[in-house]
Design a protein that fits this description.
The protein is mostly helical. The protein has helices at residues 2-12, 17-35, 37-45, 53-72, 82-115, 118-127, 135-155, 160-190, 194-205.
Length: 206
């Protein structure tokens, strides 16, 4: 009844409700493509601090479901199209929030990554041997970390957490290489046959 009365009123002015409805729908679709830009600008120029990842994720899912619903039922795009643009804008916002989360997680993981080398270093020191630790693998890891320090400085804009992580790993791998060289020499000297050691001793006495 209300719709019919509105149509009668519009007809008095030579207007059609369907046309006005389509124009309003287009306006909403166009407007929705801009509605999140202030929020995106704030995040880009400042930060995503205080924004809820779960809230924006759920909102993004809701927008996408609404879009799929309208598409599946073959409704005119002007009746649901804003959900598509809002979905894309929210995905960008979620990406910014996740970036901050990833940055924090990566920074917190650096001590764990470096600490993973310490038990092997202490074990080598206690046993005065590197056991079956592969020199080739250890040297390759050392070289790789050194290269990554360079690429982090030159190609990743000197990213501090990344540079610190690779520099620390390179230093600890360097310690392992030093242990391999040191302990392998000692083991080699101890493994000489007894008559070789005797000859060496006689030469020193002479």
């Amino acid at each position: 009844m209300l719709v019919e009365k509105i149509e009668e009123l519009l007809n008095l002015f030579g207007l059609e409700l369907a046309m006005i409805s389509n124009l309003l729908g287009i306006g909403i679709v166009v407007g929705s493509s801009l509605i999140k830009i202030p929020q995106l600008y704030t995040i880009y120029t400042k930060s995503s601090r205080g924004l809820s990842l779960s809230a924006f994720t759920l909102e993004t899912i809701a927008y996408f479901v609404n879009y799929v619903y309208g598409y599946v039922h073959a409704y005119p795009f002007t009746t649901y199209g804003e959900n598509l643009t809002l979905t894309f804008q929210n995905i960008i916002i979620v990406g910014f929030i996740l970036k901050k989360f990833v940055d924090i997680t990566f920074t917190l993981s650096i001590p764990l990554s470096l600490a993973s080398k310490l038990p092997q270093i202490f074990s080598n020191y206690r046993n005065k041997s590197t056991g079956s630790l592969s020199p080739i693998t250890t040297f390759a890891q050392f070289a790789g970390c050194c290269v990554r320090v360079l690429t982090s400085i030159k190609n990743a804009n000197g990213d501090i957490p990344m540079t610190v992580s690779f520099a620390g790993a390179a230093a600890l791998n360097g310690v392992l290489i030093l242990q391999i060289v040191t302990y392998s020499r000692k083991q080699h000297s101890f493994s000489l046959p007894s008559h070789h050691r005797a000859v060496s001793k006689e030469k020193r006495l002479d």
